[in-house]
């Protein structure tokens, strides 16, 4: 989007952003426009009534036409007021519906994001754009009620007065051309700089969020100067962007004010001269003054509505970023269900490109196997991403229980395949976190798994116990305790496949062995990637190399695979160094690793 701002903005860009954001609410806008048309037509009631009154007094001087005219004017103005009230009510309904729809849209897009690790890619501040809904809620009604009314009244007023005399027609055309010139001269620059200003606003917010999340890093003599200098820099960037934006908006406002003064004076001179020449009646002059004076005053007020419009452009451009979050492929329309409690895992001829060279997976893990695993650098992450469908291979077949995971419902797949690789949770209470793992689990089962993983004493020491609300980092639990909590939740969920990362090396061996023993009578395949495989004994071992994978039952065979893998890892390092050297020589050859989102 930023690139759009740099090359210039026009109405086509604005409509492209507006479409998915407020387009679904167009029915509200059409109603508001219809009411606005009625109000604009009824706004002519007063000047026309005055014209008729002057002509009536001049010709008859009778009270009956006066009272009749007053009664008709009262009715018309009451109808106009009713339409205005209905328009305000419609815009209030729009505000409510827009907020509800935006929350639903963004929630679904975040959940279905192809890469859901927004914090890892430093994109978590993307969701600050949600607050642009406040600008949209304020600006859209303002433009539809105030700005549209001015334009519509101007169109009606120019049309009516143009029939008074050809000179009025020419005068009105000149005013319209001048308004268009004022718009054309400064509007593109104003839209472009409004977007740039909004970007600087969010850059400042991103910096302040990073300071707030620094956990005291800048409370140091060697760091505070950097923080203050960066704050000064983002402030200076914002002020400079604001100055550039004002440089377009302010001249436009002045030009509209000057046009108002010149047009009002010109109208008086032209109308008076036509009356002197007896080409215009006094009633027509008064009506023209009433109609066009309000039109010209409205033109002078367009400056504030143009400011609202530029705010709307910046707001929809920012909100459009939420609608450009890459989405993963939708679930097949006829998703295949998994067979009951069958956890066979097979990867057949699975091939894909990876940093340092191609990778080929071809192995099978039997139902309910418990394996200690190691692999070549990066293979653990790739394996997890393949299972969760964050990474799709170039070719090959991945099956669970004999069913292709590509044919499964994505949400069901990720309930049945759990990868515990990071000390991160969602901001809910410990009790809610465990309940989400298995809504049918009873409180006794929760306490039992907490005791098994060694968390019962730590949670008992918390002031709120199970009601303690965790931050997304797991605080007030430590990294190790957070991983133990995730393991307890997995024990309640009983997934078909459970993958543990080397972070569980922090947990004592007796504790892990007790957890693994609890899965003995369950249909869960456990794959434990460990940096200390010699300390853990399970039913078998898994080696994941780039082009060789194998499940073995004895430790000696596994150790031989690890030694061979060390030579493979050395070859991988040589290949990766060659890739980096080639990229340094020709930056255009650099590509993004297709290994999926970072999981460690």
From TrEMBL:
* Region of interest: Disordered: 572-600
> Any one cellular component term from GO for this entry?
plasma membrane
Keyword Phosphoprotein in the entry? The reply is: no
Give any GO molecular function from the UniProt entry: ABC-type oligopeptide transporter activity
Q: Does the record's keyword annotation contain Transmembrane?
A: yes
Subcellular locations according to the entry: Cell membrane
Fetch the PROSITE patterns from UniProt: ABC_TM1F
Q: Which segments cross the bilayer?
A: 28-54, 66-90, 139-161, 167-186, 253-276
Keywords assigned = ATP-binding, Membrane, Nucleotide-binding, Transmembrane, Transmembrane helix
Annotated membrane topology is: Multi-pass membrane protein
Q: Polar residues compositional bias: what residue ranges?
A: 589-600
| Gene3D superfamilies the UniProt entry points to | ABC transporter type 1, transmembrane domain, P-loop containing nucleotide triphosphate hydrolases
Q: In which domain of life is the source organism classified?
A: Bacteria
Major location (coarse): membrane
Q: Which residue range or ranges hold the ABC transmembrane type-1 domain?
A: 30-311
Q: Basic and acidic residues: which segments have biased composition?
A: 572-585
Name the record gives this protein: ABC transporter ATP-binding protein
Organism lineage reads as: Bacteria, Pseudomonadati, Pseudomonadota, Alphaproteobacteria, Sphingomonadales
């Amino acid at each position: 989007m930023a690139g759009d701002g740099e090359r210039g903005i026009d109405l086509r860009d604005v409509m492209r952003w507006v479409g998915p954001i407020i387009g679904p609410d167009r029915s509200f806008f059409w109603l508001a426009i219809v009411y606005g048309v009625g109000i604009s037509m009824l706004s002519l009631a007063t000047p026309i009534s005055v014209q008729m009154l002057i002509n009536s007094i001049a010709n008859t001087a009778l009270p009956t036409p006066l009272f009749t005219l007053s009664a008709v004017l009262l009715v018309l103005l009451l109808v106009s007021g009713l339409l205005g009230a209905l328009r305000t009510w419609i815009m209030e309904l729009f505000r409510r519906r827009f907020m509800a729809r935006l929350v639903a849209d963004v929630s679904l897009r975040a959940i279905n994001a192809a890469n859901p690790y927004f914090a890892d890619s430093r994109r978590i501040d993307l969701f600050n754009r949600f607050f642009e809904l406040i600008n949209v809620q304020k600006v859209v009604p303002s433009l539809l009620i105030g700005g549209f009314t001015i334009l519509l009244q101007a169109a009606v007023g120019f049309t009516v007065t143009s029939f008074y005399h050809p000179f009025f027609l020419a005068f009105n055309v000149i005013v319209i051309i001048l308004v268009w010139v004022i718009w054309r001269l400064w509007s593109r620059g104003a839209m472009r700089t409004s977007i740039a200003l909004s970007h600087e606003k969010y850059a400042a917010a991103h910096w302040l969020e990073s300071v707030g999340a620094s956990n005291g890093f800048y409370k140091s003599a060697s760091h505070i100067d950097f923080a203050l200098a960066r704050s000064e820099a983002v402030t200076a960037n914002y002020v400079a962007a604001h100055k550039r934006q004002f440089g377009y908006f302010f001249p436009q406002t002045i030009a509209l004010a000057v046009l108002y003064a010149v047009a009002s004076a010109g109208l008086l001179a032209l109308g008076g001269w036509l009356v002197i020449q007896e080409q215009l009646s006094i009633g027509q002059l008064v009506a023209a003054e009433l109609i066009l004076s309000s039109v010209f005053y409205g033109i002078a007020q367009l400056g504030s509505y143009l400011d609202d419009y530029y705010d709307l452009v910046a707001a929809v451009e920012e909100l459009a970023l939420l609608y450009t979050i890459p989405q993963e492929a939708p679930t097949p329309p006829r998703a295949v269900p998994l067979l009951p409690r069958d956890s066979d895992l097979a990867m057949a001829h699975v091939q894909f490109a990876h940093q340092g060279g191609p990778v080929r997976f071809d192995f099978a893990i039997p139902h309910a196997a418990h394996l200690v695993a190691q692999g070549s650098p990066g293979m653990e992450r790739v394996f997890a991403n393949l299972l969760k469908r964050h990474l799709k291979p170039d070719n090959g077949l991945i099956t669970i229980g004999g069913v292709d995971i590509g044919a499964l419902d994505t949400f069901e797949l990720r309930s049945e395949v759990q990868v515990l690789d990071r000390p991160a949770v969602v901001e809910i209470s410990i009790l809610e976190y465990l309940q989400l793992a298995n809504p049918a689990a009873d409180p006794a089962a929760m306490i039992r798994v907490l005791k098994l993983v060694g968390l019962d004493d730590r949670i008992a020491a918390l002031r709120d116990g199970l009601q303690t609300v965790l931050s997304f980092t797991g605080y007030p639990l430590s990294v190790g305790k957070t991983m133990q909590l995730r393991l307890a939740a997995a024990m309640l969920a009983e997934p078909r496949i459970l993958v543990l990362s080397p972070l569980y090396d922090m947990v004592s061996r007796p504790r892990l062995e007790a957890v693994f023993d609890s899965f003995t009578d369950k249909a869960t395949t456990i794959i434990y990637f460990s940096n200390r495989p010699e300390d853990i004994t399970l039913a078998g071992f898994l080696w994941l190399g780039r082009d060789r994978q194998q499940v073995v039952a004895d430790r000696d065979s596994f150790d031989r695979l690890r030694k061979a893998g060390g030579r493979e890892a050395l070859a991988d390092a040589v290949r990766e160094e060659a890739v980096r050297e080639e990229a340094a020589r020709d930056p255009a050859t650099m590509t993004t690793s297709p290994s999926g989102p970072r999981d460690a």
